[in-house]
Design a protein that fits this description.
Elements: H1 9-14, E1 17-19, E2 24-29, E3 34-35, E4 38-39, H2 41-59, E5 70-78, E6 85-96, E7 101-110, E8 130-141, H3 173-179, E9 181-182, E10 185-187, E11 202-207, E12 219-226, H4 238-244, H5 249-261, E13 272-273, E14 276-283, E15 295-300, E16 304-305, E17 308-316, E18 322-331, E19 333-334, H6 336-339
Antiparallel strand pairs: 1-2, 2-6, 3-4, 5-8, 5-14, 6-7, 7-8, 9-10, 10-11, 11-12, 12-15, 13-19, 14-18, 15-17, 16-17, 17-18
Length: 351
């Protein structure tokens, strides 16, 4: 049985999707889930996760009578910068099948332009003024159809996760929650107010920076709790997982250090922005009905070249089972490209 987000009203409000027609929907992308002036990529992906579930319940309620569908594969291209405010979500039924169905999804918003118009509001932009911001494919399957061969390979985390004080060297998550640290693991202090606002919805614990050797320079690991809007009793749910695969503040700090070391002094910047170009997520396992408190992420990048980087993420639960794997292509650019004033054709900017 899949998880629910009913225990996190702030997250439910942030990813709410409203039907307009059989294949078009509306959403309100929220400022508090932005990086600078741009909605966070994982948050936008969570909205699309909710979109496909809403679409089948609204337009194809009898297709899978046994159980609601859940996304198992997500492939998105972030074509242009999104913005906080109203968005039109469009669905095309590419394939409707007995075990899997595939949808093409698009997030559209007002076109950005250099000229401001004194009348009109961005939230009421006409369809003619919209342009595609995010597009891609999402494949879904009802959990009851997920049957067939299963087995384990020899895959394991390498290098192993840094140990904690728990049995067999496992991290003592109760100690992390109560004291903020366990062995080399400690609560991360990252900027979530002035720029990375989307990071305020997560509590992250990572190994202290001086605890890892040079062989771990390209690897970041974290244990995280979900706290949307400060809701400490919230739990990680299926929609929240696709937000988590794109939320790794310590990894971004490390990318910034690597990027700065490869730049000439005349081009160095104090702060980077890492916009997602493409994002692929495979959901390996649905979470329990009421979610889980803790999830582990291992993040690694191979190389930054010409302002572009790869980012790979694996998410595990407390038992070490894989929940999701993700990979993305991202840019490494100055944050000044994000925080400047933005204008929209036929609409007023409210950021």
């Amino acid at each position: 049985m899949t998880s629910t987000t009913s225990n996190a009203p702030a997250f439910e409000e942030a990813i709410a999707v409203t039907p307009l027609t059989s294949h078009t929907y509306s959403a309100d992308l929220q400022d508090s889930w932005c990086i600078g002036t741009v909605p966070h990529g994982g948050y936008t992906t969570a909205v699309l996760y909710r979109l496909v579930k809403t679409h089948f319940a609204h337009t194809h309620p009898t297709l899978y009578k046994s159980a609601p569908v859940v996304p198992i594969s997500i492939q998105l291209s972030f074509l242009r910068r999104t913005a906080a405010g109203k968005a039109v979500l469009t669905v095309q039924d590419v394939k409707l099948g007995a075990r899997t169905s595939t949808l093409h999804v698009t997030v559209s918003q007002a076109r950005e332009g250099k000229k401001k118009h004194p009348q009109g509001d961005r939230d009421s932009a006409t369809e003619e003024a919209l342009e595609a911001k995010v597009a891609g494919y999402i494949t879904v399957s009802p959990p009851t159809a997920e049957v067939g061969a299963s087995g384990s390979t020899s895959w394991t985390l390498h290098p192993p996760s840094l140990p904690g004080s728990g049995p067999n060297g496992r991290v003592n998550l109760s100690a992390l929650a109560a004291e903020g640290r366990d062995g080399v693991w400690e609560r991360s202090q990252h900027d979530s107010k002035s720029f990375r606002w989307a990071g305020q919805h997560i509590e992250v614990f990572s190994p202290a920076k001086d605890s890892a050797g040079p062989e771990r320079r390209a690897i970041v690991e974290q244990w995280a709790r979900f706290q949307p809007g400060g809701e400490r009793k919230a739990r990680w749910t299926d929609e929240a997982v696709v937000y988590l695969v794109d939320m790794f503040p310590e990894a971004l700090d490390e990318l910034g250090r690597v990027a700065s070391s490869g730049m000439s002094s005349s081009h160095k910047t104090e702060f980077f922005w890492y916009p997602t170009v493409t994002l692929t997520v495979e959901v390996k396992k649905q979470l329990p009905l009421h979610g889980v408190e803790w999830l582990y992420s291992r993040i690694h990048s191979k190389v930054i070249r010409n302002g572009r980087t790869d980012i790979n993420v694996v998410v595990l639960d407390e038992e070490g089972e894989i929940i999701a794997v993700a990979s993305q292509v991202g840019l490494v650019v100055s944050a000044s490209r994000n925080i400047g004033q933005r204008t929209f054709k036929g609409a007023k900017e409210r950021l």
